Amino acid sequence: MRKANAVITVLVLVFFLIHAIMGGFQLFGVIPGGKTLMKVITPIMEAFILAHLVIGCKLTVDSLRAVKKSGKGYFRENKLFWVRRISGFAVMLFIFVHAPVFAGKNDDGVYRLAAFEGVMLTAHILFVVSLALHIVSNAKPMLLSFGVKSFKELGLDIALILSFVLIFTAIAFIIYYVRWNVI
Q1: Cβ-based neighbours of 51, under 8 Å, separated by 6 or more
Q2: What distance lies between CA 170 and its chain's CA centroid?
Q3: Which residues pair with 105 in a beta bridge?
Q4: CA-based nearest residue to 56, from 45, 48, 68, 44
Q5: How much helix, strand and coil, in percent to the nearest 5, is found in the chain?
Q6: CB 85 within 8 A of CB 137
């Protein structure tokens, strides 16, 4: 089940990168008509996210059962385990905030969100931060599940690419927020 989750995670990351870059360009106003591609990519990504969520919940329940059975929680020793689970939960909460806002309308080629004020900007910046935390804290075990022994070099490459994409999306949210409140 862990190997299947690792494969699903890679697919989520691939679709996330495409989704984030396309969405960022839409928010910049560079690709006003790119919503068609987003309508195809987003449901596929959501299906993979749902599968990742179900498997993650199952693995978490299995771990909690083992803790209960042994009678030893070792909370201090398992902080990274809890960072992974809590950051994943935060990501899911922010997805529920993100999705309805981005069901915007395309009026005369101009992409408009439903509402994007200070609270939404803050929520989306926190979404980017929680995604970064979740991805970074889970990168090593994902790579290990594929048999990658040298995490350092490949992990840094992945972190660099994701950092650029996450900063790009955060800047896109901020620029859209400014444009949305000025226009």
Answers
A1: 8
A2: 13
A3: 112
A4: 48
A5: 80, 5, 15
A6: no
Hey, what are 61's tokens? 């329940």
Which residues make Cβ contacts (< 8 Å) with residue 162, sequence separation at least 6? 17, 132, 135, 136
pLDDT value at residue 9: 92
Write out the two tokens for 144.
């290990």
Write down the residue that tokens 């329940």 correspond to: 61
> Cα–Cα distance between 175 and 92 in angstroms, integer?
24
pLDDT average per 10 residues of sequence, the chain (183 residues): 89 91 82 71 92 93 86 78 91 88 59 69 87 88 82 79 88 82 69
Tell me the two tokens of residue 50: 């749902």
Cα(first)–Cα(last) distance of the chain, in Å?
A: 49
Residue 110 main-chain phi, psi, to 5 deg: -105, 125
Q: Which two tokens stand for residue 157?
A: 């490459």
Strands (E), the chain: 105-107, 110-112
